[in-house]
Amino acid sequence: MSHVIPAIACSPSAIATPAVFGAEILSLSASWVTNFTLDVPADFNYNHGAQSVQNVDFCNVTVSYTHPGYDDRITVETWLPRNWNQRLQATGGGGWRAGRFVLSQFFMGGAIGEGYATTTTDAGLGDTMPDAWALKSPGNVNLAYLHNLGYRSLNDQAIIAKDLVRGFYGVPPMYSYWSGCSHGGRQGLMLAQRYPHAYNGIAASAPAQAWPEFVTALYYPLLAPLWDGEESPLSCELEFLTEEALEHCDPNDGIVDGIISDPDNCDFDPFSAVNKTFSCSATGHLMRLSRAAAITATAAWSGPRSVAGEFLWYGVNPGSDIIGLGVAPGQNITASADEWLSLFVLKNQSFDITSLSHEEYDRLFRLAVKEYTDVMAANDPDLTEFKKAGGKLLTYHGMADGSIPTKGTEHYYRAVSKLTPDVQDFYRYFESPGLAHCAGGRGGQPTTAFDALRKWVENRTAPEFLPVRVNGTDGEQDRILCPYPAKPIQQGGNGPDVGVFRCVH
User: Which residues form a coiled coil (predicted)?
Assistant: First the structure.
């Protein structure tokens, strides 16, 4: 059933100004967009699949507002389709962007193509990186902006979008949803924890929920070889080590397909490959694997440890893409792209992170967790209020994700389970072997995750599995992902069809 609105309603004078407690609306603009057409690829439509959007008419309403006394200016953009399915789908950001960035046209385009009203926010940061806003002055973090990015703008976005929907169509949305991955996944979990009534259903995939830990952990494999007196390894060396790990551990699950489905039992030792000869893809020449490459891979897979060997945070799984931890021939790592330790923890934009000792890194790791958990981390396991509100939460995570460790999300899900024994009544988490960060890799991207969430919310049909299509070394095959901790077990045959797998606890 759709709700049709005449074009005359899309004007600033016809749309009531939203009301947000603690905020002052600065401006509202509205204009019709007609015959909107866009091919949305699955790789940029997380939780959904590829979609061809054809000739959609919608009212683009853009609201700017401020929190008096905070010197901020936040923009919320909302698209209201002429043919509306009576539902709202809010979209998240990625990296350091809260939303309203380069990928938002795909997220919102896919939503509008299915009849959803859809919305995004820039949290007052625009499409900029932290070097443009993180420090008010040397030694002083712009906390107002960081709070907006962390959580404050998320509830504002929900309130504004729902007000616009109600004012435009004359009725509120029947159901409201959130869809995001990576930073968008962190935002989704933050909404479930802090604003449990904001959305009926939340798809929060590959979530960066333990933000201070995982961002600080990214430095560990970069610095590890330097602490050992080595130079940074070449990217092609880490590519070779990943291939070696795949060859060694791929057969552990009984299916040789170029995917490590059981990384917990992968016992490949990177140091066993030191001095092995291989062809470097960057140079086209043969070279021997360096000790520095083995140090880097070991650090990436183990996760950061203190000088005393204490656990700090999780590493990525063997088989994940760790090429970015290496350098091109003739280069070394620099501090030029540092966005976290120098800006937010040390509060000194000119600090060279390559000069950090292991002891200094340990201190900064703990400092980052203490200083920024309340602002940026979405790892509070108490989802009691979200459950009471009737909300449903769905997460998928690639096990070959080289950006955010799968085990961090496992840890969070287990923590929720301890507080809420019937966790699967409202929260289901799916791990995808071979899938990279949100999309990519050989593993299966769950393109039906959002549809499964909607059925769960509206029909009370909980997803027992998610179908995916993997692209292993033996070609494309249908598989399934199971709600953690269940695993898909092959029932016979060569595995080309979903029917030969079932979820087993």
Answer: none
